[in-house]
Amino acid sequence: MQEMSLWGIATIVGPIILLLLFTWVIVRNRSSRTSKSVTEQATKANYAAEDQAHKDDAV
After folding, report:
1. What is the CA radius of gyration of the chain?
2. pLDDT tens, 7-59?
3. How far is CA 23 from CA 4, 8, 15, 20, 56, in A?
4. Whole-angstrom Cα distance, residue 48 to residue 33?
């Protein structure tokens, strides 16, 4: 009888924990979009500076 109650608790609590985990991951992933935007802008600036340096070296 003890095994059945543990199995029942695991069946109910397991999906709840997974739902909380998925929610936390989604929330954390959304907040990183601003960081990604800043990273993209910095990468473009670095590429532009590198291209300008190569053009200056060629002349």
Report:
1. 25
2. 888 999 999 999 999 999 988 877 666 677 888 999 999 999 999 888 887 76
3. 29, 23, 12, 5, 50
4. 23
Residue 52 tokens, joined: 């300008």
DSSP string, 1-59: -HHHHHHHHHHHHHHHHHHHHHHHHHHHHHHHHHHHHHHHHHHHHHHHHHHHHHHHHH-
Q: Which pLDDT does position 32 carry in this prediction?
A: 63
